[in-house]
Amino acid sequence: MKAAVVPAMSSSWQIKDVPQPQPGPGQVLVKMRASGICYTDVHETLGHIPGPFPRILGHEPVGEIVAVAPDVTTRKVGDRVGTAWIQSTCGRCEWCQRGRRMFCPYLKSTGLEAQGGHAEYMPMNADATYLIPDKVSYEQAAPIFCAVTPSIAGSAGPIPSRTSAWPCSASAALGTWQCNTRKLQASRPSPFRTPPIKTR
């Protein structure tokens, strides 16, 4: 398959032919339909975020499931899905137990320890995927998977894997206006108030 590969720290992205992945245990294989780009991709390219090289970046990936591991029962071929920053954690450390999975020492992040979405196909952990409604285009959905991460990270309690309301009393939207609007949209199903915070 074709993929945008960052071969080494601070190097240019290169379109390369790489082996097409297959879903491992607990995974699905997704044919990419859109993969958003944000400035985090620059930081990852420059090595500001630790992790191995070469890298296939892309932490805003969305697409259609084309293969499912035998042990996966929550997803099926044809599902429209996306995934966010966290692919997997240990589930046992203090941070995981406190609902702060992003600090897990065994964290596998999309586009760093786990392959990202700047490729034709991407394996995703099934329990880290979220279904995309049919009325939402892939292009609309992709950036939400970036903006949702800081909103979830700032919440006060553990995050159920699939819920329509973040378990917190309020979700603050901090950052650029573009990200704020996406965070507000992501928290809209929540019954909690979501105050935008103007930063300038």
Q: Which CATH architecture of one domain?
A: Alpha-Beta Complex
Radius of gyration: 17 Å
Instruction: Categorize the overall geometry.
Output: globular
The CATH topology of one domain is what?
Answer: Quinone Oxidoreductase, Chain A, domain 1
Number of helices: 5
Order of helices and strands: EEEHEEEHEEEHHH
CATH superfamily of one domain: Medium-chain alcohol dehydrogenases, catalytic domain
| Mean pLDDT level | 80
The neighbouring-strand order within the major sheet is 8-3-4-5-9
How far do the termini sit from each other? 44 Å
Quote the beta fraction.
Answer: 15-25%
* Class from secondary-structure proportions: alpha+beta
Low-pLDDT regions: 151-184, 190-200
- Annotation, overall tally of beta strands: 9
CATH class of one domain: Alpha Beta
Multimerization state: single chain
How does the major sheet shape up?
Answer: 5 strands, antiparallel
Helix content: 10-25%
Can you give a write-up of this model?
18% of the residues lie in helices and 21% in strands. It is of the alpha+beta class. The protein has a domain of 133 residues: Quinone Oxidoreductase, Chain A, domain 1 (Alpha-Beta Complex), CATH 3.90.180. Strand 1 and strand 2 form a beta hairpin. Helix 4 crosses helix 5.
What descriptive keywords fit this protein?
200 residues; alpha+beta; Quinone Oxidoreductase, Chain A, domain 1; five-stranded antiparallel β-sheet; two-stranded antiparallel sheet; disordered C terminus
